[in-house]
Amino acid sequence: MSFTKISKVYELLASSSRLDMEVPQVASWLGKAKRVLDLGCGLGAHSYRLKQEYGYEMVGVDVEVAMVNEGRRRYPGLDLRLGDLCNPPEGPWDAILCLGNSVACIEREMDCSLIFSKWKAVMAPKGKCLVQWAIPPKVGEDKKVSRSDEERSLEKSLSRTSETTYRLDLKVDFKDSSLESIHESQRLQVLTPNEIIESFEKAGWSDSHYRPPELDVGASHHTVETQLRGNS
After folding, report:
1. Do residues 105 and 199 share a domain?
2. Both 183 and 208 in a single domain?
3. Judgement on whether residues 41 and 152 belong to the same structural domain of the protein
4. Model confidence over 46-65: pLDDT tens digits?
5. What residue numbers bound the domain in which 157 lies?
6. What DSSP string describes the chain?
7. pTM
8. In the chain, how many domains are there?
């Protein structure tokens, strides 16, 4: 899985209209939290808006060097770090965000509860977490979304590859024919909300809930929220 090339045109995915919808909802969920960790942050677009518009102390972490470097270029002053979901930076954090599809990139043989235990270890008492991932297509079903601007067009598709995996394909074409198209893919794990909730509970989190898609920051995504009663 690599999004090295797509980092240069990532705003087609994290568009301003999407951010205008999602950021206020995430801020409402964050409430009085101060220090917020954004895991799998991509360029850090959500983190930047949450910092600039709502005053949260944001730190973004992504595994892709190209994403972190491009994010630092676009959002000077935003704390972006290279890292992964399994090794969160030391807190204490009042909240963790894991938006997009990062949690679905975890290999199935890995125990999500062990990862969530590491998150719990860096949380402040009564810290909370919001996890989001794309709703998998059914077997034999393809989901496609297209968008474009004056210079580029994006085709995003989700296709089921097995009972346990699905694939995200991104293709960007440029209206300037001298520029080469970009095509990158991610293999994602089919996860159910109950699996994520059970993994959080196994890791010692409490009060885990599923947010129905119509109440979610993106109607095409599953979302689970959870909170600690206090660190043990």
Report:
1. yes
2. no
3. no
4. 999 999 999 999 999 999 99
5. 142-187
6. ---TTGGGGGGGTS-HHHHHHHHHHHHHHHTT--EEEEET-TT-HHHHHHHHHH--EEEEEES-HHHHHHHHHHSTT-EEEE--TTSPPP--EEEEEE-TTGGGGS-TTS-HHHHHHHHHHTEEEEEEEEEEEEPPPPTT-EEEEEEE-SSEEEEEEEEE-SSSEEEEEEEEEESSTTSPPEEEEEEEE---HHHHHHHHHHTT-EEEEEEPGGGSSSTTEEEEEEE-S---
7. 0.90
8. 2
